[in-house]
Amino acid sequence: MSNDSHATVSIVEADPDLADLLEPTQLERARREARASALRLWPGDWDAAASIEPERNHRGFLIVDGLLTRDVEVIGRQCVELLGHGDVMRPWTWDGEGSHVHAEVGWTVLENTSMAILDQQLVRRIAPWPQLGVELFNRGTRRAHALAVSLAISYHQRVDDRLILTLWHLAERWGRVHSAGIVVPLPLSHQRLADLVGAHRPSVTTALGKLAEAGSLSRRENGDWVLHGSPPRELRHHRLAGLGAGDAR
Predict the structure, then answer these.
(1) pTM, rounded to two decimals
(2) Is residue 90 a contact partner of residue 60, using CB atoms and an 8 Å limit?
(3) The pairing of beta strand 77-84 with beta strand 88-89
(4) Looking at the predicted structure, is the pLDDT value of residue 193 above 70?
(5) Number of domain units in the chain
(6) Average pLDDT for residues 41-51, to the nearest whole number?
(7) Radius of gyration for the chain, computed over Cα atoms and rounded to the nearest angstrom
């Protein structure tokens, strides 16, 4: 982990969706004012509690780039959430009033990751553009929705159904249209997929083999997964619905 107090990032430059909320006449000033200290992480376990700097009056982090997981374990069973560019989080906070169930929470950095520190000073500087604050708040709502979808998927009995639905769910955000199909460029090993869908790794390996034989997915040499055909009917409103291999440009 590295927290260089001299390294800063403009959140409206790093996140085009934030910049799109501003009028052209506002953008230049916002680029200067909406600067935040940057935190850099390298692959491996991350001790989130060590990132707390009370004097900064932290509000959280905005992930600028990279990929990491939140691993939540309750009585020996674990679930995993993937986080990446654009996500807002407060990794050191566990809401004891929201749940009295004891959970162990760990963080794993999968790729080099940069995060903007959302502190009180930044909140004050972006006050002239309340739409930025509203959007950062909305990011949390979107995370909650994505987790709700993952929870619903986990109730499917068949492991192969859970896998294909999960991969298409991830493709909603990270998928790229390619001539071969929809590429999901995430470092998802069989074990990590097992954690995502709530199954044992051997069962996931078997189910992936069946899905590959059926032509539903394949895997590139670099580890990327490729989805073939259209999303399952449960995801008929998927942003990539109707985009088959032949529709790629």
Answers:
(1) 0.86
(2) yes
(3) unpaired
(4) yes
(5) 2
(6) 90
(7) 20
